[in-house]
Amino acid sequence: MNIGEAAAASGLPAKTIRYYEEIGLIRPKRDSNGYRAFAEDDVHRLAFLNRSRGLGFSIEDCRALLGLYADDTRASEDVKRLAADHLTRIDARIAELQALRATVAGLVDACAGDGRPDCPILEDLATGPLCAHQKPKPLA
């Protein structure tokens, strides 16, 4: 099947499929005129990647998962370890988002939201502490 058919069958855009080929996650065969020719196995791998990426696994995690999936001698503990590491990263991100939400909610609550020009939200943005992942930037 061609890339359009593979895209429809896997749920991935053709551009993503080309990218996955470029980085070596998939290797479809080429027909005599040079066009990609996707087999059912290729589409299955693409759907696997679509689901994996949808669950937030990184490209490198997906590469490892595909390798484990293809390895009949794999140990399920290897797969579980990879997924557990991902779960730890998800939990850390959730904690970051909860802290971020609490900060923004506090700012929203502190603002009267009326016709006056003073606004604690803008005051905090201009003078408040930097987030841990930011570097200081001068105001223009």
TrEMBL record:
UniProt KW Ribosomal protein keyword: no
Protein's cellular compartments: Cytoplasm
Superkingdom, taxonomy of origin: Bacteria
Residues in HTH merR-type domain copies: 1-68
CDD domains, sorted: HTH_CueR
Annotated keywords: Cytoplasm, DNA-binding, Transcription, Transcription regulation
InterPro entries: CueR, DNA-bd_dom_put_sf, MerR-type_HTH_dom, MerR_fam, Tscrpt_reg_MerR_DNA-bd
Protein name: Cu(I)-responsive transcriptional regulator
Organism: Pararhodobacter zhoushanensis
